[in-house]
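Morning!

This is the sequence you dropped in the shared folder:
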Amino acid sequence: MRGQIKLPLSISAALFSFSMFAAETNVVQLPPPANQTVVFERDIRPILETSCIRCHGALKPKAHFRLDSRDAALKGGDNNSDDVVPGHSDKSQLILYVARAVPDMEMPPDDTNALTPQQVGLLRAWIDQGATWETPTNHLIQEAGTFAFSMDSTLRYINVNGDQQKFRELEGTKGDSAAEVGNFSLSQSNNHGDTFTAEGHARPKDNDYQLTLSLDKDEVGFVRGGFDEWRQYYDDSGGYYAGFTPPATSLNTNLFLDIGKFWVDFGLTVPRLPQITFGYEYQFRDGAKSMLDWNAVTQNGVTKNIGPNVEQIDEHTHVLKLDATYNWNDWNFEDTARGEFYHLGEFQTNAIAYIGNSFENTREGSHYALGVNTFRVGKQLKDWWLLSAGYLYSHYDGDSELNQTTTDSFGYAWDSDVVLRRDSHVVSAASLFHPAKYLSLSAGVQSEWTRQEGFGNVNLGFEDATAIPPVFLPFPGTVDANLDETEVQENLNLRFTRIRYTVLFADARFQQQSIGQFEQISGGTPEDFLRDTDADNNLYDVRAGFSTSPLRWLEFNADYHRSDSDTDYNHLEDESLVNGEGYSAFIRHRDLATDEVESKLVLHAATWLKCTLTYDWNSSDYFTDTDPISDLFAGVITPGGEIFAGHYQANTFGFAAVITPTPRLFFSESFTYSNTRTTTAQNGDPSLVPYNGNVYTLSANVGYALNAKTDLSANYSFSKADYSQDNAAAGLPLGIDFTRHELLIGLKRKFTKQLSGALRYQFSQYNEPSGGNLNNFTAHGIFATLSYVWH
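The structure's back. Tokens below.
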């Protein structure tokens, strides 16, 4: 019964010596053996069942020490094989632990559940009399062998009026009728510590399946695996522009991705040996999804990018896993290895108005092999000092292809084939200190170095419109790109609890990053450029606050957060054949500063009422330093220097309440409101107007028990957003304005101990004026569920 502390083999001798010394010196202080003939069923089983079997039964026993059979008790656990020595209670470690004679090994750990001297005396007498276990099929063994099964099945009917695709995207299901197996589970265990479990669900209409299987053999190993697949739906509509007829369009097709994985893990859990897990996992995403990279639509000479766009995706990943942990001489060693093999294929068609409403077909593909290994070691050096360190190495080899062509004979045709290699080394060390009972301090440092190399070929083809007839000119070239990155990060965390009912805390993170970036396209193409840039970034992120509860009915938390990211750029070379100086060469410095205040007030006004108030204030400022920029036609664009590039501010208020006026009635509610505003430097451009708006969310739940077998429940949720730009006069307004309602009313009835049923009605409504109301829908659903539980 020592499950709270697990000691490695290497200190077993020391513990054994100490324990024997304790036994020899303290035996006279132990409660004497009971002066009676002990009957296991009458005298011992109740003690083990009440105080020991919860942590030391057949299922995952603490320290691998079991007290559910005589053989297991005599075998001992991780620390010793002399926990129970028949005929010698004075040499049995079990007696020292339950008598609380060994510091830090008191069992049960909670003093309030400590055994009485009379109970310890009974255990001593039982061991002295041979530790007999009269009934082989006693109650403890029977409890270890259990079987449990549960399953629910549902009939549903959903009717949707309006945009079916938007309903599927938001609700994750089709609007139709279906019969489905909801959740099911099965578990079986025996008195040898073997456990089998199976759980999952099946919803064929939505292509949603899950199955998880697990077979565990105590102190030997396990086999676990499963399959998981679900369908993510996407709306098929594009953007909205009030000046067009219609102002918004859709593809009238079903868009979805089937996402899933299959995995299997094999584990070795033999005591005193390394714990090893080997696994394989296969992940996939297949289907078509909508894009925010919308197509061009032209009406009456006006072109707006509001046409819906679709991307075809075929993504597959194979993952090999190997994990190992081992405890030796109070040291903990962990090694984690991953091998990942990835394939992605994408296809997309875009409308391009500037070359005569042609269509651009884009095919992308990428493949890579990634190997990662992480090693960590840790040790509790002192009771108040924990030290750990780790090392990670990753190697990446990949390639990507891009092919873009237009549907007409002219325009352009681009293709590229790039190979990428990356190596990363990460070293970290961390320490946790408890120098005083009321003070804890943790500190860590991590250093990372990455080298990335890329090389490939490009072929940029353009139409020469000056030739008669026009001709297509290819421009082959090569791409060379390298990246060197060095990063160091330090973390500090402090907790102080000396003040009564109060916790003070402070956290800090500092990061220094240095990047060397080289990119070049050469070969005489119109897109030739050369970039050689060094960048240095310094970041600090600090947070400080407190949590206090001076009164039983009052709790208050507050903290202040400040972060600042400062980057300097040194452009050694940045040139383009077309524009001269490359795009980013004029940017010399960037700074992002964020301030945030969070607070929470909890009031327990009465035993049946709890209220929570929250407030969050966030403010971020963006600054940029540039060189002077001028243009032959536009003249001076900016004189250079520091530019206040943007500002973001948000205020978020929250209120929540839990009300239980009677044992049969429960009510909970939460409401949040946030107002945000984002502005950028306008620089004379009327289309650069602020994003501004409000977001509201409300959730309310009520439950009422009609009687011991019947429950009523109702849930209502509301959300609204009107976050947008007001720039219709200068361009296309961006943002979203929607309102959504969800209502669920349910009745649950328990027919027998094993059988219960539920009937639910669901109402959903969605309105989106910013989409021209094309995405609006109203839905009604009825669900009947039957659940069966046996154990």
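Headline: Residues 12-26 form the longest helix (15 residues).

More detail when I'm at my desk.
O.
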